Model the fold of this input.
Amino acid sequence: MKLDQQLTIGLALSGGGFRAALFGLGSLWRLNDAGLLRRLTRISSVSGGSILAGIVAHRWRQLSFVDDHADNFDAVVAQPVRTFCSQTVDLGSALLGHLTPFVTSAEFLARRYARDLFGDTRLRQIATPANDRAPRFTLHATNMQTGRNFRFCQNYIADYLLGVSHTSEVLLADAVAASSAFPPIFSPLLLKTKAGSWADARRDLPNLDSLRRRIVLADGSIHDNMGVEALLDTVDIVLVSDGGAPFEIDESPFEDDLLQLVRVRDILIDQARALRKRSLLDDFADGRRRGAYWGIGTTIGDYDDYHALANDSAATACLQHLPTRLRELTAKEQGQLINWGYALADSALRERAQLPIDAPRGWPVGAWPLA
Done:
């Protein structure tokens, strides 16, 4: 049985620092091995997931597809992701931003993305659905002024209240930095555009031109940690790779007037994420939507998959507790994260999304098998 060619498929890549980027890489690797990477019509991402999505978008034209399988996926996508995640990026960028006058940490983060990954590539220069059979890439940030989701796509930027701009020139590195500008370390990232380049505002705001000229952005996970919202009414099959860490119980939270706000922020984000996840899973269970969710904390045994690649173990349980940072991960941590994302995606695609896919070819990172 083959998948109906008319069905559209979207993938959401969650936030969660380098942990989420590598877990998501394993998910993409499984999709590629299954011949589904080229079938994706949309890739929606936030924060750490946007680092991965940015690399895929930037290098899409280099992928060599044979029968819908990119035979150079490892070299073109996986190796650049792993090389970047072998460095500690957040500490140096944050310190420079706090010590250098008139340059923010988010700007230093964007410069690092540009230096190591994207150069001066602009959003409109990356692969497009029409010309390259590429997905529509949507990188999400949060507009701190309007409180709405802010979207970076190949041919436009958008905010529900500000409208849409099809002519603003935005660097891919800036878009990824805005999406991963987690407060209070890296936010905000300031995006300056021409007010006249925007159209279709949803509300007649008295300060609309000012809001369009100077846009204050922070991490996309503040608004939607899974990046799933953009897929819900646009594709037939919704896939979610969630590398976000589970909410931790804190016996002794900060009680200081200011420091306790970090805990309050984490609680609010977790509650919003839990509501989105619960609603999505209910839609899957009741048949209102078709798709699958797999998270780094998912119990693979819950899939009742006799062909599962891995078993739940202490090693896989530890992966969800890796810190949500842009800091160096060891070869072992990277290999296990990639393999865990691959294994969970494999079971979820077959058992939950009911997709007719070929058997996996083995572990993507053979040095660190999970079974």
Observations:
- The chain has a mean pLDDT of 93.
